Fold this protein.
Amino acid sequence: MSKVGHAYVAGLLMHVDGLLGVTNPTVNSYRRLVPHFEAPTAVAFSARNRSAAVRIPMYHKSEKAKRVEFRCPDPTCNPYLAFSAQLVAGIEGMKENMDPVKLGFGPYDNVNVWESEGVRQTPKTLFETLDAFEKDSAYKKSGVFSEEILTSYIKLKREEATEALMHPTVSDFFFYGDM
């Protein structure tokens, strides 16, 4: 992959904590992102490892034919917001000329990502990602999202998450209903 492509990948991985606040916008989104299962929870890139947040498939040898898969997004996301946020993060990596290898994001191709030291995991809750999204200045300074949109989105998602936690789930009844 080209240096520009690698810089884009580095931007995605550097901003992944806040990015998930847009690409994984519900409390339920984090039930899928469980380490050591099929979900892409390793903040890393790889050609083969499906646990890595970013995958660069090896189908083509040509540098110009490579593509990047950001594997974390949940189908509940708004694609317009999600693609915009991904572009902001990736372009930030390109502007800063980030190198994902030097930053320690991989590649994790011929190793077990779970046994590799220093591989960070994605946040475990919507609250964590919203806190990171709020603190990440890349989205504010990009000009893509207005201050009002960012503030309103974060407020709305926090309210939704709090409301979701106030109601028992089927699993709660199953595990604790006889207590």
User: Anything to note?
Assistant: The mean pLDDT is 91. The first helix runs from residue 3 to 14. The domain at 3-110+119-172 is CATH 3.30.590.10 (Creatine Kinase; Chain A, domain 2). The helical segments are 3-14, 16-23, 29-32, 79-95, 126-135, 137-141, 147-165, 170-176.
